[in-house]
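User: Modeling request: complex.
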Amino acid sequence: MAFRDANARRHIGLQQLSSLASTGRTFLGPMKLHKFIVDEITNQSSLICSAARLIGSLDLTNAAGQLLNETIQAQNKEFKTGVSTLLFLVGVWSSAVVECLQQNIPVPAIVSLMSEGLSSCCERIQCLQIPIPDVKRELSIPINSCSHQGDDCNFKKCQVSPLAGFGSAKPALASVVKAVGDKSPPVLSGRGVPASSCLTRKLTHSRHFSTPGKSRFSSQQGNFQPYWDGMGPSADLCGCCGLGHLAVALSHGNQTSVKLLQSIAAHQQERAECRGSSQINVAGVATCCVLGLPESYSCVSPGFVTLVSPEQATVIKHFADKTLRVLLVDGDLTEQYRHLGFNRPRNVRTILEHPNPQGGRAGDTWLRRMLDILMSFEVNLVLVKGNVCEDFMERSVSSGILVIGCVARDVLRAFGAATGAQAVTYLSQLDASCVGNGAQAELWKARDGRALDLGELIPARIGAGGIDLLTVVLTTALPSKAQLLEEQFWTLLYRLHHALKDGKVFPGGGAVELLCLSHIQALAEQPGPPGNDKAMRELPSPWLAEYKSIVLQALGSGWKRYLSMLLCNTARASSELEAGTLVDHHLQTAAACGSPSAYILEEFRRGGVLRSGSDPFPDQVTDVKVCDNVAAKTEAWRRALDLVLLVLQTDAEIITGSRRSQILNSPMSNEFMFL
Amino acid sequence: MSRLEAKKPPLFISEPLTGDAVSQSLSVLSRILKSSYGPAGRLKQLHNGVGGCVCTTSQSSTLLGHLSISQPVLRVLTASVRNHVSRFSDCGLFAAILCCGFIENFRSLNVAPFTVIKISRHLLGLCMEHLKSEACGCRVSVDFSRVETLACLVRSILTSKPACMLNKTEVDHLTSLVLKAFIYTVPSRVETNVVLGKCVIIPVKGRRVVDSTVFPGLLIEAPEIQLGKPLAVKRTGSNMIKIALFSVSMSGDGFNPEEGTVAVHHGVSLEVSELNQLLHVGKQLVKDEVGLVVCQKVMHPSLKQSLKENGVLAVDRAGLSVMEPLGRMTGSQPIASIHSLSPGCYGTLKDLCIESFASKHFLRLIPEDTVTCSLILCNRSETAWDELKRVCETAEHMLQLTVKEPFALLGGGCTETHLASYIRYKSSSLPASTFKDLDCSQTQYQLVADGFCRSLESVARSLSHDGEEILTDMVYGHSWFVPSGSPCVSKWSDLVSRCGCGMNDNTEDLGWRFLQGQSGCPVIQGCPKEPSAKVADLLALDCFAAKCSGLQVALETANLILDLSYIIEDQN
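Assistant: Request completed. Predicted assembly structure:
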C-alpha cells in the first residue's frame, strides 16, 4: 500500500480535470467542430464529434481522469445529451474552485455554498420551463420572415467547413445543404392531401418547411414503398405537428435528423394513441447505416433494416412475398456456445472406443442436427442476438433459411411481440409454440428505387404485420461519417424522448444559464446562507458574508464562461472578452427591468436571448428557436459540480495491492509513504 | 531435484514501540484517519494505480480494509477497529483516532506502562459511569414515539460521509426513507422475543438520489418478466404461493469436477444427463404445486422454459444478498442440491406483483407477515453509490442498536470535550484512597488523566480540517469551531456561532476558552452542566452503543499495544 498527499493549495486533481475538460470546448453549442482521434499504435483514426467519445478515447490513467470518464459515460448512457455541457462545466468549475482555494476559503464552505447555490438556481429556473402542450405556441410566434434563407445556408456551410477538408466530402456536404432548402419533409407518408396541407400550414414559420413544395407529393410517395401504405399513420397528423416543432427546437440545427425524427413521431403517434401515452418509444427504433448513397436518402422504414451478404440476399429474393416462420435465438448460434453462467467442464475426457475415420468432423453432426430442427419446424427466418458460426450460415443459405446474427435485444422483442415467437437459447429447446409466424423479407430500396448493389453488403428489410419497430436508414457517401450520423440521430431521438418524459422543456440558446447568472448575483447580495446547511449554520456571519460572495461568483463564472464560449463557437462574438461584455450587458438589462425571468422569456419569444445589434447574422438567431431538455441539463450541471466537489475534497491517493517495489522504483517514489 | 532450505530463525524485536519506523507509520496512519474524520473530512482515492476503478471514500471500514500494513503494531490496531466496526458499523474512525491518540500521549509519559494501564482503566470506568448516569450532560434520550431525535441520528450519519455527495433535499429524503425502512422491519405483533427484520438494499446506479424509494416485501430483479401481461401465478388450496429457493447453481454444469478427471465414453453426454436431471427436478416442482422458483445462481434455459410452460414463475441470478431474508420471510430452506427435494423445504408467500423502476423490472414478494423491506437506492456515480450504501447500512444498524439502548450522544466533538472536562474536574477531586488502590501517586494519576483528556480532545480537534481553532465553553464543555483567517471581530460571540452538536448558540456568554494543544487546558469549576435547552431540530447525534464501544476498544487496544515488549516475527 502506498499513500500520497494529492493536494494542498495547488490542487493536482482539479488541475487535471480542468486541463482534460479544455479539450472538449469546441463541442459546445450547435456548431460543433469535428476531431480526429488517431491511434498511435495502429495508426487508425476516427472522426468524432462528441465529448463522450473524446473522453472515452483518451488514455486516462490518473484517478481524476477516470472519475471524469465515469461521469461522462453515465450522463451519456442516461440522456445521450448534455455531455459537452457537463465536460465544459467540469473544466470551468475546477478552475473557479482552485481560485477560491487560493483565496483561502475553507473546503467545506466551498462545497456547501456551491451545492446550495446550484440547488437554488435549479429551483429558480423552473419558472422558465415550457410545458410540452405550450411548446407549439411558444415556438410559432413569428418575428421575422424567412427571407434570408440563402445566407443562412451559406452560413451553415462555412460552419461545418472542417469537413470540407476532404475532397470526397463535397458531394455529401452539398446534399446536406441542399436538403435545407430544396427538400420538403420526407416525413409523413400519410395518404393524401389533407395531411400534408395541414402540415404545411402549421409549419410555415419554420425555415425548414417554408419552401412551397411542388414536388412534395412525389417525393413523399417514394419515401415509403407502396406496400407500406396500409401501415403508415392515418390522416390525423395535426397532433404530431406539435412534436414537429419540438423536434426542430431540440435539434439545434441538425436538419437531416429532424426529418427522420418527425417521421418516427408520426408513425409512433398512432400507436401511442392506442396505448394512451404520448411518449416516444426508443426501444422501438433501430438504425442501419447504408454507405454509398447521399445523405438525403436517409429515411425511416417500418420493420427491421439490416445489411446482408449477397448469398443471403439471394435467399430473400427467393422468398418473394411469402410469409415467413420466424425463430428468435437469444444467444450465439455456434456449437461451442453455452448460456451465461455455464462453466465449461475442464477435466472431462472423452474416450472413443471404436475410432471411425469415415465419421467426418464432429461439427458436421451438430450442423446437420440443427438444420434438421429448423427444417422440421419449417423455419425460414432466424434472428440471432449473438454470433452465428460461418458454416451454419453457409448451410442455412443453401437450405433456403435466412439467418441473421447480431440482432439487438429490442429488435428480437419487437419480433416476438408481433409474430408470437418466443426466444430460445438453444435450438434443441425448440417446440411449436416458440416459432412465430407472419414475417416478410425483401431487399430494401431507396425511395427512387435506385439499385443498391453497392458492394459486399446489401440492405434488406424484414417486417411483420403490426410490428412496433422502425428502422432509421442513415445513408452517407462517407464511411467515416457513418458513426457520427448515427450518434447525432440517437442524440436527437433521446432529446425528444426525454422532453416528452419530462413533460416540459427549457427555452434554449442560453436562456436558463442567463437566469442562473442573474440569480447567482442576487443570491450573493442577499444576507444569510443560501440554504439551511449545517456547515453554514456553524459559520459566524462575518466569514459567511465574505465566503458567500466569492464562492457564488465562482459558481456563476461557470455559466458565464459557458455563455461566452457558446457565443464564440457560434461566431456571434469574436473573442471571449467580447462575448463576456455582451453577457454582462444582457445581465444588466435583465436586472434593470425588475424581473429577470420575464425579461429572458420575452427575449426568447422575440427570437432568442443574447442577441446583439452587431450580430453578423441577425436572422440566424431570430428564426430558429431552440429548446433544451430539462432533466438532462440540470443533471449535467449537478454531475459536473459533484465531480469537481468530490475531487476538491480528496486529499490523498491510496494505491492498493502490493506494488511496493514498483512504486519505489518509479520517479515519483518520493511522493509516496508506506505503512 | 528438490532442495531443502534450512529454516530461518524467528526475528525478535524488543520494545517494539520505541522504533522510528513504528512511530513514523503510526503518525502516517493517524494522519490518514484524522484527515478523513467528520462531515468535513477529506476523501481518499483508493485505486490500484493501473487503471482499476477508483473508490473515493472516508469510511474506516473501506480504508482499513484496503490498507496493507507491514507493521505488526499497527495491524493490532486496525484489526481491533475493524472488529468493532463489524459489530457496531459506526464510530470506527473515532475508535481508531482515539487509540492512536492514547498511544501517542501515554507513550511520552514517564510512567511505567502497567501503571498507565491501571490508571487509564480507572479513567475509562469514570467515563462509562458518567455516560450511563442520568446526569450525563452529553447524552440525550431517544423517544421512539417521536421522529425528531431519530431523524437527527440518521441525518448525522448520512452527512458524516461527504463522498455520498448529498445536498440538503437529498439528505432529508434519505433520512425519511431510512426511518421508513426501519419501521417496516419492526414486527407489528409484540411477542416476548422481538426479532427485527431486514432491509435489503437494491442498487440502481446512475439515477438521482431523490428517486430512491422503499417497498415493503422483497424485490428481486426479473429482467425477463413481460410487463404488458398480467402476472399469472399458481396458488395452493389455501390461496398461498408455494416457493422453492435454490442456492445451488441450476445452470447444468454440476458435473464439473473440482479436481481430478472424469472419463466418459464417446456418445455419452454429461451435459444432457445433467439437463435431464434438472428437468426431472422441474417436474417434481410442478407436481408439488410450486408457483415460484427462485435460484441464487443461473438456471438452464431449458429448465426455465419447461417451468414456464407449466405455469411456474422462475427467477434466476437472485444473488446471495437476498437469500437469507428470502428464506426467513417465506420459511423456506434454501435447497443446496438438485438431487434431494424434500417437501419440507418449500416456503409460502401471500402475494406477488411486478414493480418497474428506472427501466428495471422487479418481482415484489409479499409474505404473510412482513418484516422485510427493500430500499431502492439511487445515486449518480458508482463511487458515491458505494459510499451511500455503506452509510445507509450503518444508519439501519444504528437504529437497531438504539432500540436496545434508547440514548444518543452529542456529536460534533461535544461529547469528547465534555467528557474531557468532566474527567479533568473529577480527577482533581478524587479521594486519596483511590491512588492507594491503584498503587500510584497523585501526580502520576494527574499525568495519565491529562493524557487521557488530550486524547479525547484530539478527536474533537480532528473535526477541524481547514485550520479552524477549537474552543470549549466553561458551562457545558461543548466544542466550538472558529474559522481561520479571522475577519476583525471584537466579541467572543462574533467569533463563534453554534457549538459542534448544534445545541447551543452564541446568545449567552458561556465563557469560551481556546482548547490548546499541550498545556493550559481549562478546568471547569464544577461538573459540566447538562444543557437546559430543548433538543434542537438539527442536532448532530452519535450512536450511543457504538461510541461507548469505540471508547472502550480504543483504550483496551492502546493498553495492549503499550504493554507489548516483544514482537516475534516468523521469517520463513
